[in-house]
């Protein structure tokens, strides 16, 4: 009677929905400070403001192998994997576009070294800000995969 070789595995993953607390605003260089052409200006929001759902996922895998007596070293194998076993769902990202003079002519230029940016005058949120923009903004649903083959 041939002997089956089997292996199994379980992986639990958890990621907090906490995000970087900075919003990035871009402005055209006004010649003040380093002449990089584009400088970033960071504005801190309240702690935890840009928080998405916590992500929890459990994956299971199983590997069975049957050695072939004819060759001595070869084996037939089957490997099955289930990702996100409990089909957890979460929003993991969203539209984070900020409108400034560089992407919308309505806004006034400003010197970040001498002027504090004012929402509505120098920058504003895009109307879709904070909303998911596609399937990539959500946790992947339950997924199955398997493979069968000969290993030698």
Structural overview:
The protein is mainly beta and 152 residues long. The chain has one domain (5-151). Helix content is 0%, strand content 39%. The protein is built from no helices and eight strands. The chain has strands at residues 5-15, 22-28, 38-44, 55-67, 75-83, 98-99, 124-125, 143-151. The strands form three sheets. It has a four-stranded antiparallel β-sheet with strand order 1-4-5-8, with no helix packed on it. Strands 2-3 form a two-stranded antiparallel ribbon. Strands 6-7 form a two-stranded antiparallel ribbon. Strand 4 and strand 5 form a beta hairpin. The radius of gyration is 26 Å and the shape is rod-shaped.
Give me some keywords for this one.
single chain; rod-shaped; 152 residues; two-stranded antiparallel ribbon; four-stranded antiparallel β-sheet; mainly beta
SSE diagram, text form:
Blueprint: E1 5-15, E2 22-28, E3 38-44, E4 55-67, E5 75-83, E6 98-99, E7 124-125, E8 143-151
Antiparallel strand pairs: 1-4, 2-3, 4-5, 5-8, 6-7
Strand order of the largest sheet: 1-4-5-8
Multimeric state of these chains? single chain
Q: What is the element string, with H for helices and E for strands? A: EEEEEEEE
**Total count of domains:** 1
**What is the approximate shape?**
rod-shaped
What share of residues is helical?
under 10%
**Euclidean distance between termini CA atoms:** 20 Å
The count of strands amounts to 8
Main beta-sheet annotation: 4 strands, antiparallel
Instruction: Report the β-strand fraction as a percent range.
Output: 35-45%
Using only C-alpha atoms, the radius of gyration works out to 26 Å
Low-pLDDT sequence parts: 20-44
Mean pLDDT: 79
Task: Count up the helices.
Answer: 0
Structural class: mainly beta
């Amino acid at each position: 009677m041939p002997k089956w070789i089997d292996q199994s595995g379980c992986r639990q993953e958890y990621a907090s929905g906490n995000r970087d607390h900075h919003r990035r605003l871009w402005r055209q260089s006004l010649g003040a400070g380093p002449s990089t052409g584009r400088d970033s200006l960071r504005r801190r929001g309240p702690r935890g403001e840009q928080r998405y759902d916590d992500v929890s996922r459990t994956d299971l895998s199983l590997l069975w192998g049957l050695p072939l007596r004819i060759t001595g070293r070869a084996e037939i194998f089957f490997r099955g994997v289930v990702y996100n076993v409990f089909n957890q769902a979460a929003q993991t990202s969203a539209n984070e576009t900020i409108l400034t003079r560089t992407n919308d002519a309505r806004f006034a230029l400003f010197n970040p070294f001498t002027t504090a940016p004012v929402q509505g005058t120098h920058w504003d949120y895009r109307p879709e800000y904070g909303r998911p923009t596609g399937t990539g903004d959500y946790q992947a649903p339950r997924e199955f995969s398997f493979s069968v083959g000969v290993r030698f």
